[in-house]
């Protein structure tokens, strides 16, 4: 399973969303599909799944609002740039 699909599956399960309600470009927080409790679970998932540490200052829309933003953020973290 591709990384995007893994994250999407987690989000759909966590927020009880249907497949057509969320894509890799869907704004999760601006569109209020996820809340602060979901955010906590999402961060824990990303840290475990991708072996990264999400710092408090990294919890911003630019890193976590869409699956594509998350993938870019994870790639930067793994490259040591974030």
How do the strands and helices of this protein lay out in sequence?
Elements: H1 3-15, H2 36-50, H3 61-64, H4 67-79
Can you describe what's shown?
- This protein is 55% helix and 0% strand.
- The chain has one domain (3-15, 25-79): Non-ribosomal Peptide Synthetase Peptidyl Carrier Protein, Chain A (Orthogonal Bundle).
- It is built from four helices and no strands.
- With 82 residues, the protein is an all-alpha fold.
- The N and C termini lie far apart (25 Å).
- The model has no long low-confidence stretch (mean pLDDT 95).
Please describe the biggest sheet, giving its number of strands, its sense, and whether it closes into a barrel: none
Average pLDDT: 95
Instruction: Examine the coordinates and then state which fold CATH places here, giving the name of the CATH topology.
Output: Non-ribosomal Peptide Synthetase Peptidyl Carrier Protein, Chain A
Question: Strand tally, please?
Answer: 0
Overall tally of structural domains: 1
Level-2 CATH architecture: Orthogonal Bundle
Low-confidence stretches: none
Q: Briefly, what is this?
A:
The chain is an all-alpha fold. 55% of the residues lie in helices and 0% in strands.
Features:
82 residues; mainly alpha; Non-ribosomal Peptide Synthetase Peptidyl Carrier Protein, Chain A; 55% helix; globular
């Amino acid at each position: 399973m591709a990384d995007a699909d893994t994250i999407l599956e987690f989000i759909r399960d966590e927020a009880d969303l249907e497949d057509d309600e969320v894509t890799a470009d869907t704004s999760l927080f601006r569109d209020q599909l996820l809340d602060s409790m979901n955010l906590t679970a999402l961060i824990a998932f990303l840290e475990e799944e991708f072996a990264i540490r999400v710092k408090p200052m990294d919890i911003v829309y630019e890193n976590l609002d869409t699956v594509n933003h998350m993938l870019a953020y994870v790639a930067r973290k793994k490259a040591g740039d974030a």
